[in-house]
């Protein structure tokens, strides 16, 4: 990013990125409370639902390939605009499906646009972070979490009021699209951020995958995988496995999203005060223990507490990983962020179908043990993040 970009331009761009992060979280989470309703409407068991939910990771895989070609040519700002339009238009069709494969197809298209939007807005956030010369990624992810919290609460209210998924996504999608497109015009122009004119002498090396990049991608993948699992299966777990009511079913993800908002609002201060290799393993380790305990207890209150602590423990992992990707030595930030965020975005949509398939083979409470196992592995992997920050 050219050094001539002013601080004012950076602030204006930050407002636009924060808004898009919020809109993305809002759209993503607003349908989670409707999943049991869609499941019942189509007549799916857990295995069939798991297969249908595979549509989104399939779409997100396409998003990684498309974004790696489109971002250097159009820039992250233009891709944000295109993907936001696609997300808002594709979402309502999910609620109109009447079969497993129709739901799969609708989720594939929606997953493609959501994946493109995630990668583009993260790339733009890294560009703004560099211009402002201060950490902002936790704030961006906090905005996403606030949007997810509002979306989850909206979905819960919509189910309680009998509002259809399609109607709900239209009601929230139209204003999100209008405001998001308006403020996206403030974003920084970063067309061809990996061009030769801005590259260092070792440009070919900078475009290659590195072990450190794959480690970061793996941590993001695991964290977002469990986040996706919570988003799509917490309501089913609370309602069907623990016999909670329709309102209680929505409180699992709502509490999880609220916890992520809280920890991300203070995330930059925490990271500045405590070593990452100490902070993140402690947070994720405690989250793994508490969530495992909630599964053993097997009550609605314990589950809600477990989801809340899980959100607190994992909330700062992804922002830290994305920021670290943008600072990797010897690798262009645009390339690194596209790869790491792309791998992570695949994870958020692999979680739901994986839990569904495991649930079909065993039971949903048994399948959810994948979450504390992954959280414990994340605690171990987070030690690599500090080496990147200090490297």
Distance from first to last alpha carbon = 21 Å
Low-confidence stretches: 193-205
So, the CATH homologous superfamily?
Answer: MFS general substrate transporter like domains
Write down the CATH class.
Answer: Mainly Alpha
| Mean pLDDT metric | 86
**CATH architecture label:** Up-down Bundle
- Can you tell me the overall shape? globular
Estimate nothing, just give the exact number of structural domains: 1
Round the Cα radius of gyration to an integer and report it: 20 Å
CATH fold topology: Growth Hormone, Chain: A
Quick one: how many beta strands?
0
Main beta sheet = none
Portion of residues within helices: over 70%
Query: How would you spell out the order of helices and strands?
Result: HHHHHHHHHHHHHHHHHH
Our estimate of the beta-strand percent is under 5%
Plain-language structure description:
It is found in: Membrane. Its main location: membrane. GO terms for molecular function: transmembrane transporter activity. It holds the Pfam family MFS_1. The protein has 391 residues and is mainly alpha-helical. The protein has one domain (7-188, 202-390): MFS general substrate transporter like domains (Growth Hormone, Chain: A). Helices cover 82% and strands 0% of the residues. The chain has 18 helices and no strands. It has helices spanning 7-29, 35-42, 46-53, 55-94, 100-132, 137-161, 165-184, 203-206, 211-241, 246-265, 267-273, 276-297, 300-314, 317-326, 333-361, 364-367, 370-381, 383-390. Helix 1 (7-29) packs parallel to helix 6, helix 6 runs antiparallel to helix 10 and helix 12 (276-297) packs antiparallel against helix 13 (300-314). The longest helix is centred in the N-terminal third of the chain and has 40 residues, at 55-94.
